[in-house]
Amino acid sequence: METKSTLWEVFIRSKSGLSHKHVGSVHAGDEVMALNAARDTYTRRNEGVSIWVVPSAKITASDLNNISETLENSENKIYRHPSFYDIPDDIGHM
Amino acid sequence: MSENLFFSTIELADDHLILGHRLSEWCGHAPTLEEDLSLPNLGLDLLGAATNLYSLASNLEGGKRSEDELAFGRIEKEYKNCLLVEKPNENFGHTMLKQLYFCVFMKLFWNECNSSKNKILAGISAKSQKEMVYHIRHSGEWVIRLGDGTEESHFKMTEAINELHPYTEELFYMSEVSLNCAKKNYLPDRLKIKKAWEKEIRDIFKEATLPYPSIVHFQIGGRNGIHTETMGHLISTMQYLQRTYPGQTW
Description:
The complex is a heterodimer.
Chain A: E1 6-13, E2 21-28, H1 31-42, E3 50-55, H2 67-71
Antiparallel strand pairs in A: 1-2, 1-3
Chain B: H1 2-24, H2 33-60, H3 67-72, H4 83-86, H5 92-113, H6 119-147, H7 151-164, H8 176-183, H9 194-207, H10 230-244
Helix pairs in contact in B: 1-2, 1-8, 2-6, 5-6, 5-7, 5-9
């Protein structure tokens, strides 16, 4: 059993069919307690149907220092945006 | 009969109100930000059940007093909560244990109460039972972790058990009004759920590596309006607003 509390990232799915969204983080000693804390902290107003907790340390993030090589490359490729045709209304969430 | 049910309902409502009030005292004082949200959350669940119960009691009395008047307008002796719920907060583990004792009892109680002849009570029990399952998960997981945690947390949990366990017997106390209600199938016989309660607590203590105590002298009195010293202080804080500004709402 861990004695030190660690940071967990919390993801909530608000409705069946939608994807989980990052809502914030909690401190907890293990995954069960993290789930309880997430429930009490982030679903007080009936926000979700499903909760994920992920240890923050397990998340691999892009490096802020070489953000230009990683992300800016796509900036001038406007043809990748779906702005040249209309999305039918009944498609729903894209 | 409605008088018996009135006083039995008051016993239940007072348990929820007073324990809910004790939880509210943690607001701003919990050991972590997460628990600072959780504890008042649990308290609000209890307060919600208390509101429903006082409202039922008010109806049973023919609307003589409103639910607020019942909750905040009585003197100490008229409160019929068991002594366990008025025990002052000490450390966090102490509160989790008190919570566990009460919520395991209430879960079993509401489970039996689902078939009450009183439709309102049956309705309250369905809602409250779900809340109790979550309260048990919350407090039970903490009791397990603190019991099976460090030497210090284990010691503090053992201390809490020694102090609080003698107060658990009163959960099963059948006052005369409750006996009458049980006979008529309005409310469950509290003694019937004692075995199941003990088993559930024993199982959690086992996982928590905590000893299940054998207590000879139990503390009772609240159901007859005889309270511990701290009850007067609790009531003076809890009733301050209604005593100072009678009938105030927000």
